[in-house]
Each structure stands twice: as structure tokens, then as C-alpha cells.
Amino acid sequence: MLELDLDELGEAAVTSKNPIDISSQCVVFAESEVISLKAQGAPKEDIAAGIHIATARRVKNLLKKIGLDDTVLFTGGVSNNPGMRKAVQEVLGMELGSTKLDATLAGALGAAIYAHDYAKEIKSSWGGGL
DSSP characters for 86-126? Predict the structure, then answer.
């Protein structure tokens, strides 16, 4: 709707001077807000930033349930989105840590480690053989 590719969306959000508040939690209603804002002539950069901030707020609400450590890493495919990184940092009020590993692979790596440990546990509970 903003005539931006996914790669361009994050870059546009970073350049925003005045992010627009997207108040709807529901994706369908948020989409209606975006359509209305676009029709009113709001800059796409400000709309893009608003979308990122609204998403970051939802992330923060989820994080409140599990708590945060002093260092938080931003992983997964969305970690390549500079607009989302900026929004999460602003909403959490903290810098996100970095890693030398490819952050987009963190979930797969975690699943592989979990599967390995689980397989070892099952193997030992069966007396060493599968």
C-alpha cells in the first residue's frame, strides 16, 4: 500500500522525521488506518515508521510476560530490517546487542540444539540405543 518493497520499508522508516501513531492492534484495522493516512497525504516514511513502532509495542507487551535481561539480541529475518531495529530500541529504551553469528539463523540454531539435547535425553532413557 505504501508502494515500497519489504526491503525499502525499513529504510523508509529510519528516515522518518515524524512517525505517525498507528493505534490499532488488529492488523485489519491498522491496514484501514494506513489506507486513510495515505489518502490524507501523510508521508510514506512517517507511516512506515508508525507501522514499525506499533509492531515494536506489541513485542514489548509480549516481553513483559517473560522479562528482559540487560542484553537483548534481535534475531530472525526481521533483524535485517533497520526500521524494526530502530523501533524496538526506541520502544524498549535500550540498545540491542549484536552477535558475530548470522542473526537470521538463530531460531534454526536454537531448534537444532534443542533437538540434539532431546535426542540425547531419549537415547539415555532407552538405555543407550534407539
Answer: HHHHHHHTSPPB--SS-GGGHHHHHHHHHHHHHHHHHHHHT
